[in-house]
Amino acid sequence: MTTTETQVETMTFAEAIRAALTEAMEADERVFVLGEDIGVYGGAFGVTTGMLDRFGEERIRDTPIAEEAIMGAAVGAALCGMRPVAEMQFSDFTAHAMDQLVNQAAKVYFMLGGAVSVPLVVRLPFGSGTGAAAQHSQSQEAWYAHTPGLKVVMPSNPADAKGLLHAAIRDPNPVVFMEHKLLYRTASGPVPKGDGVIPLGVAAVPREGGDLTIVATGIMVSRALTAAEELAAAGIEATVVDPRTLKPLDDATILERVRATGRALLVQEAPRTAGFMAEVAARISESDTLYYLLAPVRRLSGLDAPIPYNPDLEKASVPQVPDIVQAGRALVEES
Amino acid sequence: MVATLAQSKDDARRVLATMWAIRRFEEAVDEMFARGLLYGTMHLSIGQEASATGACLALRDDDVITSTHRGHGHCIAKGADLGRMMAELLARDTGYCRGRGGSMHIADVTKGNLGANGIVAGGIPIAVGAGLAHKLQGTDKVALSFFGDGATSEGAFHESVNLAAIWDLPVVFVCENNHYGMSMSVEEVSRLERVADRAAGYGIPGGTVDGNDVQAVYEATAEAVAHARAGRGPTLIEAVTYRWKGHSKSDQNLYRTREEIESWRERDPIDRFEQAVLEAETLTEAEVQQVRDQARDAVRDAVRVGQTGPPSSTDLLGAVYAPSEVDALTVTGDGAPAPAAEAAPGPVAASAGARGEAEAP
Questions:
Q1: With an 8 Å Cβ cutoff, are B129 and A76 in contact?
Q2: Residue A244, Cβ neighbours under 10 Å: how many?
């Protein structure tokens, strides 16, 4: 780190991602973006707004509605010296592109004996809360984290989004970059200027408290922080851990923070069964952190059901702030 | 009048040497498998040597290909080392994939072969991406994708050909129509008379050639390559051929007759080309025999070299991710195999990619 004064500007999550893409494209001509409606339209969520004018249609490539070809073209371009950033319009649409992501991108380096790697970033707008129903609202991070060869990044705030996207683009491996749709416009915060990298595999601890440790991902981080304030008003102090990258996973930080409080509340939006927090729970139980627990590990997850359209039901299907407050309070009071 | 391949001494030797290398390599593989010396499964392309040879002959060394599960021929025709191929089949650390890939994943990125592929149609979108990279990099390199008739039923085929068409990418799609996708005949899976008829659906040129005629495959590919290199976009070539052997080792040939197989053996692409060479008096029978003998000896050497290689490295977890300077945690291993890949003409060697990290501004 240099000692020069770090300049900071306030931007939204979407603006932070756009800033990272812009800086990366300016610094490295190998970087280009391809996806559906990312040009004139600016992307379904406006992330690439204005980038077509700046970089032209060769490097901001609008594609047909053909996710497998988008992903495959990105894999092939990555194999031949480019640094593609592919946008799936919705995370759900990777179902169309899974062969290229899972069978090709993820396995090439291993399968070819390390002769060549696939420096590819796949940007995935994901998550519920927009009324888009079951095929446009999923949180599929466990699919990707379960695939050797992929790295999985899930930022929770604008500064992390920018620094982690810079890292993802510079990484020589395929990186799945998951952007919760509700964060694009609602999350706003200070973001360092410049193309500084936040390394993959380093968890953040945005809040410290001695009574319980909440591990949360994506949009659940801000909900956990809000819940922690409410818990504090009730005399319960929570540590909040944001893994930021699910693979590689900084489990050392998670385990250390859980040992310090003796209580673990794991919060994810994705469905419960075989979800990412099941992995976190397993790592706690497999380690000597188990002996520090004052109460069983508790998970808060989305229901094992597709996301419904009805707004009340949609809200009820994934953890909300009151759910986290209630679970945190119960965890402390029962032990 | 341009001389045909059979009329030029150098071309005739080169074509014969490649086709015989493929034939002898696969015969050796077939025999070794039967003797229990090889693990897993194999997809042999015996009978299809002309399409791999003719198509690759139309490419430059720095052009790239993607291949299929039936990929030994493509690999050899693009210039792979037989010893490293055999070492891979024998699961040795000296194999192209360090014994991690096997028959279905042999690649030689230094020769522009981006790899065989275990997924039907899996290489087609990758070739389109390679073509896109060539275009963005301002080179005139071409990407050629081999696939079978079975692959044309996959969505990946349609999405990819269309994408290459609308972006005028330098890609040549070569469908080796060997009549069967495992057991399903091409007539059963399509209403079209010819696979090449699909080209019209994407607004690109397409044509069907006798895939057992190396001259015809070469000419069609050369035309498509010139078209692509000139920035005029992709072409779909259908090379009609036939695989003499079963789909894989489990095939009992229940879906076709002995007579049908025999009729195609009579259309042996190697025999046809030899006849043309002898009729043109380009090479003597003794010279042809010399090429055959050299191919036999080269394959014997490859088996010997392959068998002497050390077993695969056991560091599997270190083999999953390329080293990264922006990753604080991921474990990586010893990287590239012993015969380190030199700077590749097209694809970026993994180690070079990793070095690039340090240079990134």
A1: yes
A2: 26
DSSP letter string over A49-105? TTHHHHH-TTTEEE--S-HHHHHHHHHHHHHTT-EEEEEPSSGGGGGGGHIIIIIII
**Crossing angle for the helix pair A67-79 and B155-166, to the nearest 10 degrees:** 70
Active site residues of A: 136
CB A308 within 8 A of CB A317: yes
Q: Which domains does chain B have, with CATH numbers?
A: 5-308 (3.40.50.970)
Size of the A and B interface in Cβ pairs below 8 Å? 226
Q: What is the pLDDT of residues A87-133, one digit of tens each?
A: 999 999 999 999 999 999 999 999 999 999 999 999 999 999 999 99
Please give, rounded to a whole number of angstroms, the shortest distance from the CA of B328 to a CA of chain A: 5
Locate all alpha helices (DSSP H) within B244-284, ordered by sequence: 258-265, 269-279
Between CA B219 and CA B324 the distance in angstroms is 44
Contact B166 A73 (CB under 8 A): no
Q: Check A173 against B321: CB less than 8 A apart.
A: yes
Q: Which amino acid is at B348?
A: V
Structure tokens at A247: 């693979």
ipTM score assigned to the predicted complex: 0.95
Are residues A115 and A79 in contact, defined by beta-carbon separation less than 8 angstroms? no
Domains A8-192 and A204-333 alike in fold = yes
- Comparing CB atoms, the residue among B156, B337, B347 nearest residue A79 is B347
Q: Using DSSP, how many helices (H) and how many strands (E) does chain A show?
A: 13, 14
Quick: pLDDT tens for B183-222: 999 999 999 999 999 999 999 999 999 999 999 999 999 9
CA-nearest residue to A61 within chain B is B167
Does CATH number 1.10.10.10 belong to domain A8-192? no
CB distance A172 to B350 below 8 Å: yes
**Structure-derived torsion over alpha carbons of residues B357, B358, B359, B360, reported in degrees to the nearest 10:** 50
pLDDT in tens, A183-221: 999 889 999 999 999 999 999 999 999 999 999 999 999
Sign of the alpha-carbon torsion through A320, A324, A329, A334:
positive
Q: Between 3.40.30.10, 3.40.50.920, 3.10.20.30, 3.20.20.140, what CATH number should domain A204-333 receive?
A: 3.40.50.920
Determine the 3-state secondary structure of B264 from DSSP: helix
Across the interface, do A80 and B347 touch by the CB < 8 Å criterion?
yes
